[in-house]
């Protein structure tokens, strides 16, 4: 059973950021790291369905949603597993990530390992844009 994972986020240029995840004894997963090269603002932070990001979000699919839940914010238990909300980047373009989540896991059928992790240009709207 995996208890730790590393996600490498890379844009079309050469910038790269590393996110570390660790499953705690209580079952929740802690996601830590810094994401660089962003604009000063909030950016949606998600785990997507497929591990293929060759064509960006087109090939990596929608939010990872193995429980067929509704799109809500990360504090809501009725949400996509892959919806981690938004991260905020400062004037320096860096977003420091510190998320503890009880829906994502690092092993089993609903594991986020092997899926694409993305940072979007816009903040997460928690599904409100499409209503």
Automatic annotation (TrEMBL):
Gene Ontology biological process terms from the UniProt entry: superoxide metabolic process
InterPro entries noted in UniProt: SOD-like_Cu/Zn_dom_sf, SOD_Cu/Zn_/chaperone, SOD_Cu_Zn_dom
Recorded GO molecular functions are: copper ion binding
**Superoxide dismutase copper/zinc binding domain: residues covered:** 18-128
Q: Name one Pfam family in it.
A: Sod_Cu
Protein name as catalogued: Superoxide dismutase [Cu-Zn]-like
Organism whose genome encodes this protein: Pteropus vampyrus
């Amino acid at each position: 059973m995996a208890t730790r994972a590393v996600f490498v986020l890379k844009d079309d240029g050469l910038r790269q950021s590393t996110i570390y995840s660790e499953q705690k004894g209580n079952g929740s997963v802690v996601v830590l790291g810094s994401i660089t090269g962003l604009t000063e603002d909030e950016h949606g932070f998600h785990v997507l369905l497929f591990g293929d990001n060759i064509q960006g979000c087109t090939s990596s699919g929608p939010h990872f949603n193995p429980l067929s839940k509704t799109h809500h914010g990360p504090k809501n238990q009725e949400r996509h597993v892959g919806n981690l909300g938004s991260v905020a980047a400062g004037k320096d373009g860096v977003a420091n990530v510190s998320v503890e989540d009880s829906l994502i896991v690092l092993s089993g059928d609903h594991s986020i390992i092997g899926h694409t992790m993305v940072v979007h240009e816009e903040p997460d709207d928690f599904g409100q844009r499409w209503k």
